[in-house]
Specification:
The complex is a heterotrimer of chains A (772), B (174) and C (231).
Chain A (H helix, E strand, L loop, with lengths): L1 H19 L2 H41 L21 E10 L2 E10 L18 E4 L1 H8 L13 E5 L12 E5 L10 E3 L13 H26 L3 H13 L4 H33 L21 H21 L2 H5 L16 H15 L14 H29 L5 H12 L2 H31 L7 E8 L2 H12 L4 E13 L5 E6 L2 H7 L10 E4 L15 E8 L3 E8 L5 E3 L11 E5 L11 E9 L4 H10 L8 E4 L6 H35 L1 H9 L4 H37 L8 H21 L1 H7 L9
Chain B lengths: L2 H9 L4 E2 H11 L8 H13 L3 E7 L6 E6 L1 H12 L9 H13 L4 H25 L2 H26 L1 H8 L2
Antiparallel strand pairs in B: 1-3, 2-3
Chain C lengths: L10 E10 L2 E11 L4 E5 L6 H8 L7 E6 L2 E2 L5 H10 L1 E4 L11 H11 L4 H14 L15 H13 L5 E5 L7 H18 L2 E5 L3 H4 L4 E6 L2 E4 L5
Parallel strand pairs in C: 3-8, 3-9, 6-7, 7-8
Antiparallel strand pairs in C: 1-2, 1-4, 4-5, 9-10
Classes of the chains: A alpha+beta (772), B mainly alpha (174), C alpha/beta (231).
The complex binds adenosine-5'-triphosphate and magnesium ion.
Protein name (chain B): PadR family transcriptional regulator
Organism (chain B): Kutzneria buriramensis
InterPro entries (chain B): Tscrpt_reg_PadR_N, WH-like_DNA-bd_sf, WH_DNA-bd_sf
Chain lengths: 772, 174, 231
């Protein structure tokens, strides 16, 4: 037993020895393997960190939150000894970025503290996040500066921000209490609420994760198989001197283990480097950026990676040994290899299709219990099928090709002899492509559902105001904004009849009223009665009647005033499109309520000539005189937050995967040139022109990638069809997008092949003739 | 090399006139040294005397009368023995070996056999030389090497000939 | 007609057939190898010499026919058993390419011993002795890629003999060498084989190389032919 263990150990050590020796070529090979595996490990580690990262961001987001949006919990229960702070959230936008923050009004010395803030600002003071402060001081901040004129008394610390570049503020304002959505805050922070996913969003997440991570695994696997031919030769030589099948397997395992371990190390180092560099990233997709500290891998998953990557490498290495085991003569003869067998390669796709086909419509809306696992497994199986089926198809296709120019002939013959390596090279790209095709098809229904397109660009401004005149001065201010289009402004009040019934009244200038009803003559001070819709029976109050007016301003406050209904100028018919005024039985112009002191919310819609950020900024700046009372919100796309997040994470992920794919391609292509050094040198020595070699090299990539594109399309569309079937969505395909993906993949492969040309020239010099 | 055995070998493919025999001989083996008529007739009469050939018939025409000779069974035996007996390995055997190979082919025998037998014999001699070389002094080595290289040249020629059997067979037996 | 273990042939092939796809490489080949003898296998190119050698060594499995080693049928042995046989009883010398390029010459020679479970120290001591014996001790720490063809071949011979094999299979061992180096390799190979009592199957097309043998077997069109001289 001991002896046996010892011999096993010896075999493994021999493999390790083989991996690290071999002079420059050996080191080069090891380095390439390590880089290939390392890049994969980096991405995998990053992927395991996503959960923690989102969690940490969410946690800090909730920790500074004052309301979780649930109206029942909008009022905080008082805490003894704490002087509450009135706070309201305000959002702003500048240069395409969101700026968020709170306006606060302290009520005493024992105010609660917001995370990351040493002292909440008093009126006239503000606390800004470093990124916002920087933005204000930057040369481009001219249009932003008028809105933040308070004195900065400090900066929001990292514990109060979701990311290092987040634009966040606390501004002290004296009258928060009666502003929109003001909350009496005894304590910042609310318990977090888990996000509920719909079936479609869940599918997007799972598909996205699979589409991004399966290629990574494929790349790791193919990195573990770098220099397969040289290794086969080496192991066959061992076989010849009497290593039996198991021994050779152990030796190969030892060899692969070294590469995987080095790769793991490289991966961890790259991950740490990346982690420390991430805070410097300011790409818009990352919004507030990411703190290094937030990137901590899920340790269970990370441990799994540390264990699984070497295992995968070893498994791939020993599994791909079949030929050497059967044919120890590899050294002596490089005879034609056996044809690949199809059946086991078909197991994953058939299984995957089967699994998905049983789940029709089960993820239509909510998640159906028991469907997650089969669907996720089906997706992974179908994606994993791509690199499995591809070598077989490439082999069959290539076997049928012949003839042509010398470059073509060289390429085809080479592919016929060994189509495995090139097929593996493009395999990873094909998986990415397959995933991309399926993903974009899933995004089509998701986008219509969670991010509907908006019509013409508009801004909505709303402001509580103590009296009608001030309210309508807002409209005048807005009209003076250069570039602003049509402006609709109006306010609602409710009229309580003598019998206690409530009737709606819409207050607006004549111009605005004309757009809501067929009014021919109108001057300020007029009041119109609106024809009730047929069937409805609210009766408008008559002239001279004394009624109570109720209005809504500053969120929770209902204001009351007495009013005597003046003479009714006329009866009008409400126009169909005047939806804002629906339910109103009276239209009044501001002067008609001149004597009434009624706090009221005025709402204005500003048509923008185009989605021009400068106009938006001017509109926002026009509100400054109202001291944070007016809120404005630019009506761009209204996107579901979860959907937006998924989209962003997938965008970032796919960029990383694409980069990884390109790097992998390069690594494998370089390795292939190293491996064929001698053959290339012989060809040049025989006078084959460089251009012919280059073209032959391109053909060697072009043929497999062409096959890969077809395979990716077929499997990708199959997956799409099945997933749409699972989620009960109609099949809509975006052909231009697919063409773009395909084009990108093809260009990536050809470009990476092109990048290897310099090393081809070096390899093909007569130096390469000496066999190592 | 024996002219008698060569002529016998040629006759094995069928009866011929003396003149024909000379022509066949010259064509296949006499590149640099054609046979004289006299040599042909004196050899034929020796073979007649030894009972290895017989006169098959006489053609009477315009010129001198022409005898046709045919090989006897004793003659065939002689040719066969000769063909399958390896030549003593010695330098410059090639003309004899060539003659043997061609005759073997012409008579439908296995030329490969001739070659194999000859190779065996050569190798036997070469083994002796190699042994001597391995144990001998430098002079011995040099002498043995010289002989070995010459013998090897013979054998290589033989191998080449074997490799060209097909080609040869076509030329010799149209 | 299986062979008995003692007094019988060491290695015997009976009516061996082997085809690669449509190409018949061996078509009824037979050969007997007696202990300690050196047999040259000769024949034209493509006649099946190498294939015969591989069948004899248990690297290739014949389509039909049997190969006996010391009376046991090679083709019915397990892969492990045949591997072990290659490690302990057989040695190989080919034209080139049999050395593992990543290992130094010394490690290459020690390799069969270490695969057999010997400790590195002992294995390398034995290997060093053989390298000295074959006059290539100076390349012990070089990689095969850094040696000349003749040196590499002698390293290969050392590796073939290090386990004290019963049979050494040599396929064109001097094929890539000049006369002088070829002679040296042959002399060392044959002498070492004689010293250790190993039999040698020597595939060659060079008569001078074949002259190191005790007898020759000719392969033609996949069939073997033994030539018995009358005298
Ligand atoms: N792995 C193989 N695949 C296909 N055909 C093969 C294979 N190995 C050998 N052959 C064929 O078998 C026949 C015999 O080959 P073999 O290598 O045994 O010849 P050989 O006598 O060693 O030739 P040489 O002297 O040139 O080395 C040849 O026709 C060869 O083409
Ligand atoms: Mg051969």
């Amino acid at each position: 037993m001991i002896v046996r263990m010892f011999r096993w150990w010896q075999d493994l050590m021999l493999g390790i020895r083989l991996a690290v020796s071999g002079g420059r070529a050996g080191w080069g090979r090891l380095a390439l393997t390590a880089i290939g595996v390392g890049l994969g490990v980096t991405v995998l580690l990053a992927a395991t960190s996503v959960g923690n990262m989102l969690q940490a961001r969410d946690d800090r987001g909730y920790a500074r939150s004052i309301s979780n949006g649930d109206p029942n919990q909008a009022r905080q229960t008082p805490v003894a000894g704490v002087d509450p702070v009135y706070a309201a959230q305000r959002t702003d936008q500048f240069a395409g970025r969101d700026i968020t923050g709170y306006i606060v009004q302290k009520t005493g010395p024992n105010a609660p503290l917001a995370p990351g803030v040493d002292r909440l600002p008093d009126p006239g003071e503000m606390v800004l996040s470093p990124a916002l402060a920087e933005m204000l001081n930057a040369p481009g901040g001219d249009l932003l500066r008028p809105r933040y004129t308070e004195r900065a008394i400090g900066a929001v610390g990292p514990e109060g921000l979701t990311g290092p570049h987040e634009l966040f503020f606390y501004v002290g304002v004296s009258d928060v209490a009666d502003q929109h959505e003001a909350v009496r805050v005894y304590r910042f922070g609310v318990p977090s609420v888990p996000t509920k996913l719909t079936g479609l969003l869940w599918l997007l997440i799972v598909l996205g994760a699979a589409a991004l991570l399966v290629p990574v695994v494929v790349f790791v696997a193919s990195s573990a198989r770098l220099a397969a031919a040289a290794r086969d030769r080496r192991l066959a030589a061992l076989r010849l001197v009497g290593a039996d099948g198991d021994q050779v397997r152990r030796i190969a395992a030892g060899e692969a283990f070294v590469g995987a371990l080095t790769g793991l190390l490289v991966g961890v180092v790259l991950f740490l480097i990346g982690r420390s560099l991430v805070p410097n990233l300011t790409v818009p997709a990352l919004r507030g950026g990411i703190f290094s500290a937030d990137i901590s891998p899920n340790w269970i998953l990370a441990t799994l990676i540390v264990v699984a990557v070497p295992l995968l490498a070893v498994a791939v290495a020993t599994f791909s040994l079949r030929r050497v085991i059967i044919e120890p003569l590899g050294v002596v003869r490089r005879a034609h290899n056996q044809r690949r067998r199809l059946w086991w390669r078909l197991v994953p796709p058939v299984l995957g299709i089967g699994l998905l086909a049983t789940q029709g419509g089960r993820l239509r809306n909510e998640l159906t219990a028991g469907s997650e696992l089969p669907v996720a497994a089906g997706i992974v199986l179908l994606l994993a099928a791509v690199p499995l089926v591809l070598p077989w198809i490439v082999e069959r296709v290539v076997a049928r090709l012949a003839g042509g120019s010398p470059a073509w002939q060289l390429a085809i013959r080479r592919l016929q002899l060994d189509s495995g390596t090139p097929a593996r090279v493009v395999g990873g790209v094909a998986v990415v492509l397959t995933g991309a095709i399926a993903l974009q098809a899933m995004f089509i229904p998701a986008t219509t559902e969670y991010a509907p397109a908006v019509g013409e660009p508009k801004m909505y401004v709303s402001m509580p105001s103590a009296d009608l005149r001030t309210a309508f001065s807002l409209e005048d201010k807005l009209r003076k904004v250069p570039g602003a289009g049509q402006i609709d402004a109006g306010a609602f009040a409710e009229v309580r009849n003598g019998d206690g019934g409530l009737l709606g009244m819409y207050i607006a200038n004549c111009d605005d009223l004309r757009r809501s009803a067929a009014i021919t003559s109108c001057s300020d001070g007029d009041v119109f009665a609106v024809d009730p819709p047929p069937g409805a029976n609210p009766v408008a109050p008559t002239a001279g009647q004394r009624v109570t007016l109720e209005s809504y301003a500053g969120g929770s406050t209902t204001n009351v005033a007495q009013w005597t209904v003046p003479a009714i100028t006329g009866k009008v018919r409400r126009q169909q499109h005047g939806q804002a005024t629906e339910g109103s039985v009276l239209y009044a112009t501001p002067a008609a309520l001149a004597g009434v002191s009624l706090p009221i919310d005025v709402e204005a819609t500003v048509q923008l000539s185009a989605s021009d950020d400068v106009v938006v900024q001017h509109v926002r700046n026009a509100l400054v005189p109202y001291g944070w009372r007016a809120t404005a919100f630019a009506g761009t796309a209204i996107v579901s937050g979860t959907f937006w997040l998924i989209g962003e994470v997938l965008t970032i992920g796919s960029v990383i995967t694409l980069l990884l794919a390109a790097a992998s391609l390069l690594v494998v292509a370089l390795e292939q040139i190293r491996e064929r050094r001698r053959a290339l040198a012989v060809l040049t020595a025989n006078g084959v022109k460089r251009s012919v070699l280059a073209r032959s090299l391109l053909w060697q990539s072009a043929v497999p990638i062409a096959v890969a594109v077809v395979v990716a399309m077929v499997i990708g569309l199959t997956l799409t069809g099945l997933l749409l079937y699972v989620s009960g969505q109609p099949l809509v395909l975006d052909w231009p997008a697919m063409a773009l993906f395909v084009g990108t993949a093809v260009v990536a492969v050809l470009a990476s092949t092109g990048c290897t040309l310099p090393s081809l020239w070096r390899a093909a010099s007569v130096e390469g003739l000496r066999d190592e | 090399m024996s002219i008698g055995l060569t002529l016998l070998g040629l006759l094995e493919t069928g009866p011929r006139h003396g003149y024909d025999l000379k022509r066949a001989y010259d064509e296949h083996f006499g590149q640099d040294r054609p046979l004289h008529y006299g040599q042909v007739y004196s050899t034929l009469s020796r073979l007649l005397r030894d009972g290895l050939v017989e006169v098959d018939g006489v053609e009477v025409g315009e010129g001198p009368e022409r005898k046709r000779y045919a090989i006897t069974s004793a003659g065939v035996t002689d040719v066969h023995d000769w063909l399958i007996t390896p030549e003593r390995p010695e330098p410059y055997l090639h003309s004899t070996l060539y003659t043997k190979v061609v005759l073997a082919l012409m008579s439908g025998r296995s030329a490969a056999e001739v070659l194999d037998v000859q190779r065996a014999s050569h190798l036997e001699t070469m083994r002796g030389l190699t042994r001597r070389k391995l144990t001998g002094d430098l002079a011995d080595q040099l002498i043995c090497d010289h002989a070995l290289f010459h013998l090897e040249a013979d054998l290589r020629w033989l191998e080449l000939t074997a490799a060209r059997l097909d080609q040869l067979a076509k030329e010799v037996r149209p | 007609m299986s062979a008995e273990i003692d007094g019988g042939p060491l290695l015997e092939a009976v009516d061996v057939h082997k085809a690669f796809g449509p190409t018949p490489a061996l078509d009824g080949a037979a050969i007997r190898l007696w202990p300690g003898e050196v047999v040259a296998v000769m024949g034209p190119s493509g006649s099946g010499k190498s294939t015969l050698l591989h069948c004899l060594a248990g690297i290739l499995r014949p389509d039909s026919g049997t190969v006996y080693y010391r009376g046991a049928e090679l083709s019915s042995m397990s892969d492990v058993a045949r591997s072990e046989l290659r490690r302990t009883d057989f040695g190989f010398v080919f034209q080139f390419g049999q050395l593992v390029p990543e290992l130094t010459c010394l490690e290459n020679v020690a390799l069969p011993l270490r695969l057999g479970g010997q400790r590195r120290r002992e294995a390398e001591r034995a290997a060093t002795e053989w390298l000295e014996r074959l006059e290539v001790a100076d390349v012990a720490n070089k990689r095969p890629g850094e040696t000349s063809g003749g040196q590499g071949q002698r390293v290969a011979v050392a590796r073939a003999l290090v386990t004290g094999p019963k049979v050494v299979f040599a396929d064109e061992p001097t094929g890539a060498l000049d006369s002088l180096n070829g002679e040296r390799v042959m002399k060392l190979l044959v002498n070492a084989a004689k010293d250790t009592g190993a039999a040698v199957v020597l595939v060659t097309h060079e008569a001078r190389v074949a002259a190191y043998s005790d007898r020759e077997v000719v392969v033609r069109d996949g069939r073997t032919r033994q030539v018995e001289l009358a005298q």
